[in-house]
Amino acid sequence: MPAATVELKLKGGLPEGVPSVTLATVLPMAWPALRRDNGAVLLGLQNDTATGDLSRDLADTLQRALVAELGTPVAAGRPSAEGPRLQDLLDPEGPFEPVVHTGFEFWIENAENAGGEVAASLERANAAAIPTVRLSGVESAYWCEVPEKNHLRWVMTEPEERLLDALARLHATGGTSLGEGTRLVGSFRAHGLTVPVWDLPSSMSAEDVEKPAAAFAERLAAALTDETPLTADERRARGGLTSRQITLN
Q1: How far apart are the first and last CA of the chain?
Q2: Which phi-psi region, left, alpha or beta, contains residue 121 (left: φ > 0; alpha: ψ -120 to 50)?
Q3: Are residues 122 and 37 in the same domain?
């Protein structure tokens, strides 16, 4: 998702003077975090990490953002190796419901009045953002509009090896199709999750893919329960899927 936010719930509640904490895909000038004039905190997800441990780096940035001066960005830092990780600070029972935006106007409270470097960064980011829509009928699936064809990117939480077996079973018999002109082309691997990607015709909207995606989810659920050894065709399909994986760090 290029432009999305999700409100975070902290263990023990929010500190005094911090009305909200929001995780964002990216912030202006790639700031690690920002504390608004009203005390609200925006935490940027897409950043180079100092330690290679994204969770620990985000936790350190969040802790510094909670006490930062109002109306200021939070600079990158190097956390202690003994510092908390993000999951140590979040309420595990809190909801996690991403909101997809058409642009990055959420960066600032009055985007129309932005100026200087922030306005330029906003303009560049909006120009580069891929139009994205979250499907409503299945979990964590996102329709994306790109030149020449559209995509469906579906974040799946099943264990990778089990998921690849299930996808291979379906792929070998055409069961991964989402309709005419669609094709499962590969997957991303990101932070322990597998994200299958489909090519879609440019005429296929997010609304058009809702029903095919729901039907595929049912086929996948059934395939995930199949524990028989893969056939030769299914092994070939699995090999093709694994060869088209891209790991995102």
Answers
A1: 15
A2: alpha
A3: yes
Q: Which of 69, 93, 128 is the last residue of a domain?
A: 128
Q: Write out pLDDT tens, residues 108-162.
A: 776 555 567 777 878 888 888 889 999 999 999 999 998 889 999 999 999 999 9
Backbone angles phi, psi at 114, to 5 degrees: -70, 150
Sheet containing strand 21-24, strands side by side: 72-74, 33-35, 41-44, 21-24, 4-7, 99-100
Interval 95-121: pLDDT, tens: 888 999 988 888 877 655 556 777 787
The answer to whether the CB of 213 falls within 8 A of the CB of 197 is: no
In the chain, the number of structural domains is: 2
CB 10 within 8 A of CB 89: yes
What is the sign of the dihedral through the CA atoms of 109, 114, 116 and 122? Answer: positive
